[in-house]
Design goal:
Blueprint lengths: L2 H22 L1 H4 L1 H21 L19 H8 L4 E5 L17 E5 H20 L6 H14 L1 H21 L6
Antiparallel strand pairs: 1-2
Helix pairs in contact: 1-3, 1-5, 3-7, 4-5, 5-6, 5-7
Amino acid sequence: MNRESVEVVNKFIETAREYIELVDRHEELGKEKFLNECLKTLPLIFHYAVQLPIVEPDTTEISEREPDSDYKAFADFLGEDDGSNQVWDPVGDDGVTKEEGEWEVIYHSLADDLLDIYSDLKNPMMAIDHRSGAQMNDAVWEWKFGFQNHYGYHLASAIKALYWRMRYWSDSSEGTG
């Protein structure tokens, strides 16, 4: 990797660690502070993930994805802020749209988004931290691939849901800190 790519990877790792710690401490922070911090951190993860270099993995091992921490408890923690209505595929390329200009609206869980992002970031990070034979290129490859194929969708979805909640918080004087 060139110097610029190494800087992007380091910034991505730093921001991903902040998010992992944020999720690990969500109960201690309380819901409002937790969601406000997510609204600040998730766009940065997106920003750096887009810039991650394309690398070849050093091994053929992929870190095992651990099951999401207790989804029900996390959804309960978020309470009424967990669910939202979203358009499944706003550009209509996945064949889900019913007719031209008619989009499928689905119920979407913020808890699912936040926990999937957490798992997709944490597993390669744990492999690096525990020196389980994983090389940096393996982790970068997993993060890039995961962004393009899984957690990138969850990032965009969570940012959108949090943005609308922020608007409602502003309207109700709850603020966003």
